[in-house]
Amino acid sequence: MDDNMKITFTWVLSRDRPKGKEVVRNTWIVDEPNLPERTDVQKVLNGSLNSFTINNVYPRFFRVTGSGDIRLLELENNSVSGNLVMNHANYEWWSFHDTTAFKGCGGVAGPTAIVVSEETPPTGILGDTLSKFSIWGLYITFVLAVGRFIRLQCSDLRMRIPYENLPSCDRLLAICEDIYAARAEDELGVEEVLYWTLVKIYRSPHMLLEYTKAD
Fold first, then answer.
1. In this structure, is the dihedral angle defined by the CA atoms of residues 36, 38, 44 and 48, taken in order, positive or negative?
2. What is the number of alpha carbons within 13 Å of residue 96 lying toward its C-beta?
3. Can you give the pLDDT at residue 135?
4. What pLDDT does residue 152 have?
5. Interatomic CA distance for residues 130 and 125, integer angstroms
6. What is residue 37's three-state secondary structure?
7. Helix, strand, coil shares of the chain as percentages rounded to 5?
8. Cβ-contact 86, 94 below 8 angstroms
9. How far is CA 106 from the centre of its chain?
10. C-alpha to C-alpha distance for 6 and 23, rounded to whole angstroms
11. Which of 91, 92, 87, 88 is nearest to 110 (CA)?
């Protein structure tokens, strides 16, 4: 017993939901001031004593979130102390007796804790989605998706207005039809002239306005 002594206490909680986080585990390390006396531990191991006391082993109240995290509740007297007992029979085993147990626990002396588990969504496609991403995550994803869609619809809108809100496109459509007709008649020279005329109109806002005036 000359080496440093360390005592850890682990809770393993299992639940049906949420999917993928059915098992929650957390470990507490007993602070050095709350460790038992080395002589008492040595006596228990030698068989001359059957138990030793550990103070503030783990918190009695804690909350398990939907994401699987364990958070302590800020309450007074939230620590459990007890005796670690070495039992002797056909084989040896350790048992923990809670010396600070509540009267409402029905005289249970073993390790006890009061766990507040967050409400999780029901089973199904929607429930599985909410359990994986949480309501906030689903909400943020929805808002970002809608925002991106609106942004794509409104981006560079000022650049598209001159071409989308034209008063009359009859003359432009006539030029396009002439281009198709020239191509059909294999008049490539005429097609090229009409094509560059159309490009010139679109490049010049003034010409575009002139060609799209309402009659």
1. negative
2. 18
3. 65
4. 78
5. 9
6. coil
7. 40, 25, 35
8. yes
9. 39
10. 25
11. 87
Q: What is the pLDDT of residue 195?
A: 93
Q: Tokens 């002439």 — which residue?
A: 178
Residue bearing tokens 């602070």: 31
With beta carbons less than 8 A apart as the criterion, state whether 32 and 56 touch.
Answer: no
| Sequence ranges of the domains in the chain | 8-117, 125-211
- CA 165/CA 102 separation, integer angstroms: 77
Residue 204: both structure tokens together: 């010049």
pTM for this entry = 0.48
Here the tokens at position 209 are: 């306005």
| Residues β-bridged to residue 61 | 114
Phi, psi of 32 (to 5 degrees): -60, -40
Helices (H), the chain: 38-46, 125-154, 157-164, 170-184, 188-203, 205-211
Query: What is the C-alpha separation between 123 and 120, in angstroms, rounded?
Result: 9
Give the sheet arrangement for strand 61-64, strand by strand: 70-72, 61-64, 114-117
Measured CA to CA, the distance from residue 132 to residue 138 in angstroms comes to 9
Q: What's the full length of the chain, in residues?
A: 215
3-state SS, one letter per residue, for 146-204 = HHHHHHHHHCCHHHHHHHHCCCCCHHHHHHHHHHHHHHHCCCHHHHHHHHHHHHHHHHC
DSSP assigned state of 121: P
Low-confidence spans in the chain with pLDDT less than 50: none
